[in-house]
Specification:
The chain is an alpha+beta fold and 519 residues long. It has helices at residues 8-33, 44-98, 106-129, 225-234, 236-239, 350-353, 419-425, 429-479, 483-510, and strands spanning 131-132, 135-136, 144-147, 154-162, 170-178, 184-188, 204-210, 214-219, 241-245, 253-258, 266-271, 283-286, 308-310, 313-315, 320-323, 326-327, 329-331, 334-339, 342-348, 361-368, 370-373, 383-386, 399-401, 404-406. A hairpin with a 2-residue loop joins strand 17 and strand 18. The relative contact order is 0.18.
Length: 519
């Protein structure tokens, strides 16, 4: 057939030339951009997933930077704590030196006190000035905010971590299950033929031992239990054991007990001198889990049956309590809980900790803490928080001294526990306890910060880096151009484009051949 109105071969050649031209353009674009997907039509599904991965990568990249920034904050905080720790060790050394009163003059003690004052002031200064980019680190700005704490039930509350998922505050309930106990031994003050009318009928030597040490006391025949109690209490700083008269009456007997509460405390009273075959100086303890809370009605020596056991040693008991329904760890009067949404340490009041029937104590954590965004998504599951308490001298080293909390600032001149007052009492134990608690507070804080940096921040960075590498690889597989494939495809498109151009020229020439039929 020889038609000239419609050149079908030319149309076919044009269509193929158009396709080859478009194909050539696509491959040139991919080679110039390095991407297989440059617009939605290239691969709609691939574009969607690659854009989602790009969003994930942006979040992960920022999460890595956030974690590294948080690690810098923690490192800066710990560096300040190192200086405070060194100052506390200096205070410790100066106090120990001052206790050597037989070889140190009053002027040297005064000089030591001035150094202690300066060190305490420096600790408070560091607490107030340690910063990171304008962020206060150790003045309590990063501590949690509590509300509603009843001081007659909870002496101190330290919140190390708290989660506020779906709420702006967290309620904390503390319920005492079993009371804290001191180690306690009981001596009958009316043992016939030996302790009649609360007076020792025979000479006796006893060895009193507690958590702080051992001491031997000797008493002559006729010594009253009142004097025995005074002698034991005069050595309490050396032994950690105190004594009281039951109902204040020598005829009722004596209680030997540890000064402090808990399983680390004990009392031991052993008779050394006199007739060792006699049983008149026997001490007793109540069966495990039992104790005599008070003696208002008189000590019930008769009628207690097998409740009492003859022994010369008894150990204290740690308080047992529930915090928000979870069993807390007890240590004397302290309870602590570490859970995914709450980490807290509480020092309970003695009355509250020894009364399982007491009403549950409730307080609220209303905010605060140092919150770190560690993941690519902004939600509570990808955030972590930690509380950094103030280490000013007014808040550091809280220890119970005669039933009252005493802090590091009580070692400054003119305070109850400065070294001159301690020297006049010939008792540095209170100052030593406060310093030891202060050192422990700083060491524990450094340990918590170090654990947070190592186990939370560092592992988070490694995890995010691994995810970033894998997601980047996946995005590359989906979106990046394979240059070997694209180069081969480009060559093919070029050849087809050239061939289509040549064929189109031939198709256009074919119509002119009709003229030969017309002669």
């Amino acid at each position: 057939m020889a038609r000239i109105n419609t050149n079908v071969p030319s149309l076919i050649a044009q269509a193929n030339l158009d396709r080859s031209g478009k194909d050539l353009s696509v491959h040139l674009e991919r080679l110039s951009t390095g991407l297989r997907i440059n617009r939605g039509k290239d691969d709609p599904a691939g574009l969607i997933i690659s854009e989602r991965i790009a969003t994930d990568l942006a979040g992960i990249e920022q999460g890595i930077r956030n974690s590294e920034r948080a690690s810098s904050v923690i490192a800066t905080t710990e560096a300040a704590l190192v200086e405070i720790s060194d100052l506390l060790n200096t205070i410790k050394g100066l106090t120990v030196e001052a206790a050597n009163s037989g070889a140190i003059s009053d002027e040297e003690i005064e000089a030591n006190q001035l150094q202690i004052n300066s060190a305490i002031q420096s600790i408070t200064r560091i607490s107030n000035t340690a910063t990171f980019g304008g962020l206060k680190l150790l003045d309590g700005s990063l501590d949690y905010i509590t509300s509603g704490i009843n001081a007659s039930e909870i002496k101190t509350a330290r919140v190390f971590a708290a989660s506020f998922v779906g709420t702006n505050s967290q309620q904390v309930e503390v319920d005492v299950l079993a009371s804290a106990q001191k180690g306690a031994l009981y001596l009958n003050g009316d043992m016939p033929g030996a302790l009649t009318d609360g007076v020792l009928a025979s000479a006796v030597t006893i060895r009193v031992a507690g958590s702080k040490g051992v001491n031997e006391l000797s008493f002559a025949s006729g010594t009253s239990l009142t004097n025995l109690v005074s002698s034991v209490n005069g050595r309490s700083a050396l032994t950690g054991v105190e004594a009281v008269l039951i109902n204040g009456d020598p005829n009722s007997g004596v209680i030997f007990r540890s000064v402090d509460y808990g399983s680390d405390e004990f009392v031991s009273v052993e008779r050394l001198g006199g007739d060792t075959s006699a049983t008149w100086f026997e001490t007793y303890k109540f069966a495990d889990g039992l104790e005599l809370p008070d003696f208002a009605a008189g000590f019930p020596w008769a009628g207690i049956g097998t409740t009492l056991t003859s022994t010369n040693r008894d150990t204290g008991v740690d308080v047992q309590a529930l915090i928000n329904g979870s069993l807390a760890n007890g240590d004397g009067l302290e309870v602590s809980l570490t859970s995914p949404n709450l980490s807290v340490e509480l020092l309970l009041d003695e009355t509250f900790a020894t009364d399982p029937a007491a009403t549950t104590s409730v307080f609220d954590i209303t905010g605060g803490g140092a919150l770190f965004q560690l993941g690519p998504e902004v939600n509570s599951l990808q955030q972590s928080s930690i509380g950094v308490q103030s280490v000013a001298s007014e808040n550091l080293g809280g220890s119970l001294v005669n039933g009252k909390l005493a802090f590091l600032n009580s070692l400054k001149s003119g305070q109850d526990n400065d070294i001159r007052s301690s020297a006049s009492r010939n008792d540095f134990s209170q100052a030593s306890d406060i310093i030891a608690t202060s050192i422990d507070d700083v060491s524990i804080m450094r340990g918590r910060l170090g654990a947070f940096e190592r186990n939370t921040l560092s592992t988070n960075v490694r995890s995010l880096q691994a995810a970033y590498e894998n997601l980047t690889s996946s995005a590359s597989v989906i979106r990046d151009a394979d240059f070997a494939v694209e180069t081969s495809a480009l060559t093919r498109a070029q050849i087809l484009n050239q061939a289509s151009t040549s064929v189109l020229a031939l198709a256009n020439q074919q119509a002119s051949q009709v003229l030969s039929l017309l002669g």
